[in-house]
Design a protein that fits this description.
Elements (H helix, E strand, L loop, with lengths): L1 E5 L11 E5 L2 E5 L8 H4 L15 E3 L5 H4 L2 H6 L5 E4 L1 H29 L13 H8 L4 E2 L6 E2 L7 E6 L7 E8 L5 E6 L23 E5 L10 H17 L3 E5 L5 H15 L8 E3 L2 H12 L6 H6 L12 E3 L3 H6 L7 E5 L9 H8 L5 E5 L8 H6 L4 E4 L2 E4 L3 E4 L9 H11 L3 E5 L3 H14 L4 E4 L5 E3 L1
Parallel strand pairs: 3-4, 4-5, 5-6, 10-11, 11-20, 12-15, 12-16, 13-14, 13-15, 16-19, 20-21
Antiparallel strand pairs: 1-2, 1-22, 2-3, 7-8, 8-9, 9-10, 17-18
């Protein structure tokens, strides 16, 4: 008998963590960190719900923090198994986890200074940089797309990765396990599924049939994105209009994938003359800078047009007038440079990072344009700005929102509602388990799928529940 239990990204879009038990074998699909409001992030400190020391291994779909961010905690609590993932995912996770350990320490020191005086006890960081170093030894099973791998000596449990089209090296995960009698069953975990038609990532691979159980993400299960072409046009319009006013363009970007995609489009604008050479562009995120360099090293995992056209040439992510600002001093100096200028900085949901300093300095100015190009979770500063807040609190101060705010959701690396339904229709599973979505989005997708796939059982996963496969 095989079962799956949900220990994250069930009822939320973060903290992806699902335990597969097949006979005596126990494999984890992802081990992500909860992100967003402090009530959600508090879940990171709760017990996993299983014994890490009893796991045989972990299969990692991709390197986003909400999918890999608790691996150091897992190893600290006794996990000694192998981690299976693509080479780009391995390298991305290394950078993401090291950055996470640094951020956790900085947040702890800041809270300690602020709260200890008030008699409030501050929790220790979730994990340390030393914990990250130890967990990196477990990333010892690199995999290739579309190649089946035996996970046990009896060859009864097999695993295969396929391109998810989400970010560099992202994977859909197939597991084959024994069914009743001598039958074999197949489970497909989409991880985060891309929307297709993007300039950097290849399109998601179609499902390999048959699929008995489909674990499907539902981030945008209640809506579709604006067309990608229209989104690029809106980005270009927002940038050019701000440049005419000699203002500042602020683009909060996730360091992984979104930063590289926006750089690609800004570079295209520069080469076509739409973005004048006199306008500086600042990538103000050490992590995004490192990841951009990593993208260059793994260009063979990008869309074929990118990998072919960039051989022997300059990186598709860099262009004249682009400045990598790595130090805090360089970051502060940006404010002394007159407009027009463009600043890309993290974090993508504006919950931390250098973007908050730029927002504090510029959000109240009418010639500032804030371009939001990523998902904003409930309870985040980004979500409040998307919802039209007139004022926000940044570093304990009230800041008036006078900037022009663009929300361009067509850049999302997640599949929209139509493509999620289309993928499920192609998979034709007996059962669909919906994860990685806020309740409204997941339930909306459930209703739509019940109409499309009348013979398929569809269930919205709940954290802590176990389902027989």
């Amino acid at each position: 008998m095989a079962t799956i239990s949900f220990h994250g990204a069930a009822g939320t879009v973060t903290g992806s963590c699902h335990l597969i038990t097949a006979g005596k074998r126990r494999y984890l699909l992802d081990c992500g960190q909860y992100q967003g409001h402090w009530t959600v992030e508090g879940l990171n400190y709760e017990p996993f719900g299983f014994a890490p020391s009893r796991l045989d291994g972990l299969i990692l779909s991709h390197g986003h923090l909400d999918h890999c961010g608790r691996i150091p905690l897992l190893t600290r609590q006794g996990f000694t198994g192998h981690i299976h993932c693509t080479p780009p995912t391995r390298d991305i996770a290394r950078l993401i986890l090291m950055d996470s350990a640094h951020v956790l320490k900085e947040e702890f020191l800041w809270k300690q200074r602020r709260l200890t005086r008030a008699g409030i006890k501050v929790k220790q960081p979730l994990y340390s940089l030393e914990d990250v170093y130890y967990c990196l030894d477990r990333f010892d099973r690199p995999v290739k797309y579309n190649k089946w791998i035996d996970l046990d000596r009896d060859m009864r449990l097999k695993f295969c990765a396929a391109n998810a089209g989400h970010i560099l090296g992202s994977s859909q995960i197939y597991l084959e396990y024994p069914g009743p009698g001598k039958t074999k069953k197949r489970l497909l975990f989409t991880g985060d599924l891309g929307d297709g038609g993007r300039p950097l990532e290849g399109d998601p691979a179609d499902p390999m049939n048959p699929v008995d159980t489909l674990i499907l993400e539902s981030t945008y299960g209640d809506r579709d994105h604006r067309s990608y072409e229209a989104s690029v046009e809106e980005l270009e319009e927002a940038v050019t209009e701000t440049i005419k006013k000699k203002g500042t363009v602020l683009i909060p970007t996730f360091a992984l994938e979104r930063a590289q995609e926006i750089l690609f489009h800004l570079g295209t604008m520069r080469r076509s003359g739409k973005l004048p050479r006199r306008v500086p562009v600042f990538l103000n995120s050490p992590l995004a800078i490192d990841l951009t360099r990593l993208y260059n090293g793994h260009r063979q995992f990008c869309r074929k047009e990118i990998s072919d056209s960039s051989r022997g040439r300059l990186s598709p992510f860099t262009f004249p007038g682009l400045h990598f600002t790595e130090t805090a001093e360089e970051s502060k100096a940006i404010h002394s440079i007159p407009g027009p200028k463009i600043i890309l900085a993290g974090s993508g949901m504006m919950t931390g990072g250098r973007i908050k300093h730029h927002l504090k300095h510029m959000l109240w100015k009418e010639n500032t344009t804030l371009i939001i190009v990523g998902f904003q979770a409930q309870g985040t500063l980004g979500r409040r700005l998307v919802e039209g807040a007139d004022t926000v609190r940044i570093f304990g101060e009230t800041v008036s929102v006078k900037a022009r705010v663009y929300t361009i959701n067509g850049f999302s690396a997640h599949a929209g509602r139509k493509n999620l339904i289309r993928f499920a229709r192609k998979a034709r599973p007996q059962k669909i388990l919906l994860v990685h979505g806020e309740p409204g989005a997941a339930n909306s997708l459930k209703k739509a799928l019940e109409t499309e796939l009348t013979s398929t059982r569809i269930h919205v996963a709940r954290r802590g529940e176990t389902i027989r496969l």
